[in-house]
Amino acid sequence: MEASAGSALIGSDAAVLGLLAAILGFVFWSSSRERGPWAKLYALVPAILPCYLLPALANSVGLIDGAHSGLYPMARDYLLPASLVLFCISMDVGAVLRLGPKALVMFLAGTAGVMLGALVAFEAMRVIHPETVAGETWRGMTTIAGSWIGGGANQAAMKEVFGVDATLFGQFAAADVIVAYVWMAVLLFMAARAPAFDRWLRADTRAIEELQVRMATYQAEHARVASTTDLMMIFALAFGAVGLSHFLADPTVAWVRAMPAEWRLRDYSLDSRFFWLVIYATTFGVALSFTRARRLEGAGASKVGSVLLYILIATIGMQMDLAQLADRPLLLLLLGLIWISVHAAVMLLVARVIRAPLFFMAVGSQANIGGAASAPVVATAFHPALAPVGVLLSVLGYALGTYCAYLTGLMLRALAGA
């Protein structure tokens, strides 16, 4: 797995992996500081952004050669599906259902708002500035759909399924982060004024008090210090499922390619090996969530999944050329703001119609847009015991993200005439 030396100062993939590990360690160490200049920096810049941009900087100045490294294919084919398994394995379907129909309705409304917002934003920018949505822009939009419905793993999955090049991916990753965190700031502003919003929504908030007690109890019962056995079981299930996914993907692709051409299965990327790899990994993760394996979340299954995902993010970043990222940032930012505005309008409309509390609207929205990294932050703004609700709904987003983002991609492709 050696990269072509080329003109890069570091040509060994082993050395590049060490550099990426050091970068990730530095980002997470510095972002954990509660005081001083680092705290002020990360109050403005989310930690995920330097995880992309610092490897991109190393690539742009010639320190490494991301285009010829074997690290990204490794992370894409092994670490990404493993992270999907671990994110989905922690999904407590029963607990999600016990949140009540309004919580699920608001979460699904958020998913529908993201899908609808993609189409509206595409058509709006076609009127405002047609060049912005010309060419391959629709492909980049699929990565935001994956991120805003599921999370980083789903975003990376869409990058591969729809063949988004690294530079376009970087442009949309920047727009994604900026718009998502602006929206989170809006939600936190609303959370501080929850009683007034609940009166406007005519919401019944009794379920929230009951939820606080139930989730505090759940959290206390399941948290534990991970043992070596726990960690080995997490490893075994994650990569066992990845191995099985690889084993099944090849014959599935062969079967699809053997189907009559008039069925047009290839038009829907169904002959993509990576597509089936992601589908199988997600499905196995969800299936395992119905077994005792779900208890591994108490030992940190999703945290291990996050580690794998951030390694993938760094390998994606190392393929970016920062000199090309400034091509059209303001126009992509406008597209993102139109997109998130449609999502917000759908959420407010549905919340008003079903008289859902602001808590369900805010956490349902952030579980889509921000995922497990930030949905608990919004939930905690209402009550500390409610943080796991954000996690539960976010995990549901991981399960839906691949499927719904893929469907959104197909609709965008149709609009673009590609």
How would you sum up this structure, described in words?
The chain has 418 residues and is an all-alpha fold. It has a domain at 92-150 and 180-295 and 327-416. Helices cover 73% and strands 0% of the residues. The protein contains 18 helices and no strands. Helix 1 (13-31) packs antiparallel against helix 3 (48-60), helix 4 packs antiparallel against helix 14 and helix 7 (137-149) runs antiparallel to helix 18. The relative contact order is 0.20. Residues 1-5 have low confidence and may be disordered.
N-to-C order of helices and strands: HHHHHHHHHHHHHHHHHH
Report the β-strand fraction as a percent range: under 5%
Mean pLDDT: 84
Q: Give the strand tally.
A: 0
Main β-sheet, in a few words?
A: none
Share of helix, binned? over 70%
Oligomerization state of this entry?
Answer: single chain
The count of helical stretches stands at 18
Distance between the termini: 35 Å
Q: What structural class do the secondary elements suggest?
A: mainly alpha
Defining traits:
418 residues, mainly alpha
What topology does this entry show?
Elements: H1 13-31, H2 37-44, H3 48-60, H4 71-89, H5 93-98, H6 101-128, H7 137-149, H8 152-161, H9 166-191, H10 194-201, H11 206-222, H12 228-258, H13 273-288, H14 301-317, H15 329-354, H16 358-369, H17 375-380, H18 387-416
Helix pairs in contact: 1-3, 3-14, 4-8, 4-12, 4-13, 4-14, 6-7, 6-15, 6-16, 6-18, 7-8, 7-9, 7-18, 8-18, 9-15, 9-16, 12-13, 13-18, 15-16, 16-18
